[in-house]
Design brief:
This protein is mainly beta. It has one domain. Helix content is 12%, strand content 32%.
């Protein structure tokens, strides 16, 4: 079971030959008046470069960093490569796989859960079709949608079949799609909130679009070819 983040305070004092210790856990929720982020030169370079795909993805809690993902030509290439131009495809399953880089968990643990959301034409945050059945009946709900860190495989996996199918058929427009930290305590059985949260004190450094890296972000697609 994933619990919400806490701030652990450790106290130790020595009085003569007596050592007194105390530990208390303070929940990180509505306790910070302001949060300021000071990024290293490496991260600042990444933030300043918005013209090209990046080889590393930085995600940070406490309303810190998110990552933008896009599929500008992949779906078009899938359709154009069909042997028969009178054919089309239906997506059976589409998975976006994000892999944290080894050694990046020190001294911070990986973010326990990530969320994916999209922007509408007014640049307001909206659910991806696969995220909740209240938005789209094709969704299997938050548990199927995914985004939970798996320490065994060292991966985050999002199932985004409905979203990519709608992009393929031009039923929706990609005004911006983002991956960001989420407060796990606010996740319900039907929805994952899309609003920014200051309640996650963790970070994840993952592979991006670097094709030579074994930790490159991947999109796995299973599809069926059909006649138009």
């Amino acid at each position: 079971m994933i619990k919400s983040d806490t701030l652990s305070v450790y106290y130790r004092t020595i009085n003569g030959t007596t050592i007194d210790t105390l530990t208390t856990n303070l929940p990180i929720s509505k306790m910070a008046a302001a949060i300021t982020h000071t990024y290293s030169a490496t991260i600042q370079t990444e933030l300043n470069n918005t013209a090209s795909s990046r080889g590393t993805v930085y995600l940070e809690g406490l309303s810190g960093l998110r990552a933008k993902v896009s599929f500008p030509s992949l779906l078009a290439n899938l359709r154009s490569n069909l042997a028969k131009k009178d054919s089309d495809i239906i997506l059976n399953r589409a998975e976006l796989v994000l892999t944290p880089q080894p050694g990046s968990f020190i001294p911070y643990r990986p973010i326990p859960r990530l969320n994916m959301y999209r922007l509408d034409i007014a640049h307001q945050r909206q659910y991806v079709e696969d995220a909740t059945a209240t938005v789209d009946p094709r969704s299997g709900g938050p548990d199927v949608f995914g985004g939970v860190y798996n320490p065994t495989t060292n991966q985050y996996i999002f199932v985004i079949t409905a979203y990519l199918q709608d992009l393929l058929l031009n039923r929706t427009t990609d005004y911006g799609t983002y991956i960001a930290p989420i407060d796990t305590s606010s996740v319900t059985s039907t929805a994952i909130p899309v609003n920014a949260t200051p309640s996650v004190a963790a970070r994840t450094v993952a592979g991006g679009a670097n094709k030579t890296s074994p930790y490159q972000i991947r999109l796995n697609i299973i599809y069926t070819k059909i006649a138009k």
